[in-house]
Amino acid sequence: MTELSDAPKRARVVIVGAGFGGLTVAKALAKAPIDLTVVDQHNYHLFQPLLYQVATAALSPADIASPIRTILKGQRNSSVLLAKVTGIDTNSGEVMAGDRRIPYDYLVLATGARHAYFGHDDWEAYAKGIKTIDDATALRRKILLAFERAEFEHDPVERGRLLAFVIIGGGATGVEIAGAMAELARKALAVDFRSIDPTNARIVLIEAGPRLLPVFEEHLSEAARRSLEELGVEVRVSTAVTDCDEAGVSLADQRIGTRTIIWAAGVQASRAGQWLGAETDRAGRVKVAPDLSVPGYPNIFVLGDTAHVRDMDGKPLPGVAPVAKQEGKYVAELIQTRIAGGDLPPFRYRDPGSLATIGRKKAVVQFRRLRLSGYLAWWLWSVAHIYFLIGFRNRLVVAMNWAWTYVSFQRGARLITGPDPEPEIRTDKGPGMERLHEVA
Amino acid sequence: MTELSDAPKRARVVIVGAGFGGLTVAKALAKAPIDLTVVDQHNYHLFQPLLYQVATAALSPADIASPIRTILKGQRNSSVLLAKVTGIDTNSGEVMAGDRRIPYDYLVLATGARHAYFGHDDWEAYAKGIKTIDDATALRRKILLAFERAEFEHDPVERGRLLAFVIIGGGATGVEIAGAMAELARKALAVDFRSIDPTNARIVLIEAGPRLLPVFEEHLSEAARRSLEELGVEVRVSTAVTDCDEAGVSLADQRIGTRTIIWAAGVQASRAGQWLGAETDRAGRVKVAPDLSVPGYPNIFVLGDTAHVRDMDGKPLPGVAPVAKQEGKYVAELIQTRIAGGDLPPFRYRDPGSLATIGRKKAVVQFRRLRLSGYLAWWLWSVAHIYFLIGFRNRLVVAMNWAWTYVSFQRGARLITGPDPEPEIRTDKGPGMERLHEVA
């Protein structure tokens, strides 16, 4: 490639991670005089807030994900690389992905979060969270198979385990999953089985703290709890989990037999901090400078769930989408300003409020002075989520899916995919088998 | 369970397979005085004709599949069992699924087809067909990853292999896949890459016989060929494949380097014939009596792709949906008639014609005296496929997906799912790497 010796070289910006934060930076740099490379281990941007709906069979993966290339295709300065980053060489200024090396002048790490198990990493085998599409379809498979197996299970104790679903973690994620599970069991599957009654499935939501949704005000936490209990969810607050295994969950005072434990209780940062050897907090988030750069590396920025950023009260900002997006806009503007020779004041976050939905028609909203619960909150939640989806097509599809589910109570993606399920080995041929031919 | 000793026991009907054939029998028996059990190794009914659209990222799996339980939920006499059948005990009259045994008075085997490799079973590792949802998402992953890898491939020979796609088999399936692949490469992906030009991807359709679509009349085969060539597909007829391996396809006179071979050239019956020890044809299909029962077992029926049924000219009926559906209706009526003490004349098939689509706006239709090609044929194909989908929701979703793809040329399900792709190991850091930062 011949270079004109007096043409200034364009700055090379590399963004690792195409979630809310990374994609916001990329789009904000669309017209910047730079060469942009976006690196992600998946070929799609995922709208994570709705992932639990894939796990509970209401939406398909493609409804909430868009190929990164399609999102960025109009940006002539952008290139997309599907790769898994393995480290950063800060001396040579290169991102390492396997044997591949990607040089940068400015680097943005927006690699998100992983689940954390508070020192009980062995629980991860039994209590999986949902962070990726494959997590969600795997959980969907697990949930639907539990009902299928329960239908022909003779042992009432095992049937009880199959029809019990335990969600650990009472934040927005846990609340939303619990509500959706209740809808699935009590509505969508209600008349589909002959031996079992899915409406009797037990759904338990466990929270270690004194109330659900700790980021909301108390009366909204109460509204959420009531809505869940109306849906038949057992809510247990001030309850710690002492153990998880393949047959159940142990609490301080009792044991719940279950084959499906869903983890929504803790997250930690991605490995970005380790790649940099930077100072991190206990969750692994990188303690960034007021301009979101890594101390000692003014050209490396960390944002989103992987960054530890303090707000005006000195508290760390939560790992939610609006935080990542505001940080992304700031970093994009800062990079362009610095290239032009200027600078910006430190980053400041403006809180746009919080939302959480509970099942089909209820939600809680806390936004500036606005406090809502119930139906109106649910409408606002739906509109906001649809608005923030990337891509007109996804918005239309999700809106229609929800309209369908609302009207019909049916869920549009009730598929068990993956390897063919091995039939459980049964050695007895007891009275239960004849039930196959009972007049229902 | 107490039985009244003088109440007649209802006949137990077991259907294995919930495809077109099996599901037609099940639905036709909705009001029959029987106890019905439907057994399938998946929890969903799959609309196979559109599976290639999942493989080419135009539709999501849930758009073309419906849970069997939902389809049958209104039938109080029906029970659904998710299990993989392993054999039939004709002495005791039981279906065997692992250690589970399901007794029957009437048995219907509608277990469909698998791919056949004409004695070259070793090719199956390199040239996969699409028969299930997991086949389709695996192929989708393979195709999309091929483009992703080609984008950063330095070696032009390897890049050529990655950007070459070979479809073996010029029947309706191969033609439809070839057309969809061309649409994907030339439209949906066209501007999404910076180093490669997807519109230059090579798509080759290979047919051993003298023309494509042998079941259609010659002029329609020609129309299909022309449409494919207009889409940039290389059509090779009268060409036999001599070998398949991981780096390409060998023909009699040349070799095509490719990393993606799609098999659409041959099918064989499921193992039902082996379960019964019945007489089968060379494709493993059970040679049934004129009433579709297995010779010697008047209460066991085989239908659909697994059955060898002769038409008025003595030729075996093809493995297509209308055949399975008409056979299913017949068997359901026959079972009810026999239970009531009567009988029916032998099965007779009425041919409703053939359809095949080529890409976005072309198709061929052959129906009674009607011969169509081009746009009108394509509209008819679309309407027919939407009509035959099970479930209003799926019809609406597929219609909207197609409208979207038609208008935008974008494909709605371009996700690479499954295990995270390992980045290819590159040891050289040649000029290609700097291309990442070229001004596009």
TrEMBL record, chains A, B:
Keywords linked to the UniProt accession: FAD, Flavoprotein, Membrane, NAD, Oxidoreductase, Transit peptide, Transmembrane, Transmembrane helix
Listed InterPro entries: FAD/NAD-bd_sf, FAD/NAD-binding_dom, NDH-2, NDH2-like_C
Enzyme class: oxidoreductase
GO MF terms held by the record: NADH dehydrogenase (quinone) (non-electrogenic) activity
FAD/NAD(P)-binding domain mapped to chain residues: 12-328
Annotated catalysed reactions: a quinone + NADH + H(+) = a quinol + NAD(+)
UniProt KW NAD keyword: yes
Region of interest (Disordered), residue spans: 420-440
Residue spans of biased composition, Basic and acidic residues class: 423-440
Parts of the chain that traverse the membrane: 372-390
Similarity-based family: Belongs to the NADH dehydrogenase family.
Protein name, UniProt field: NADH:ubiquinone reductase (non-electrogenic)
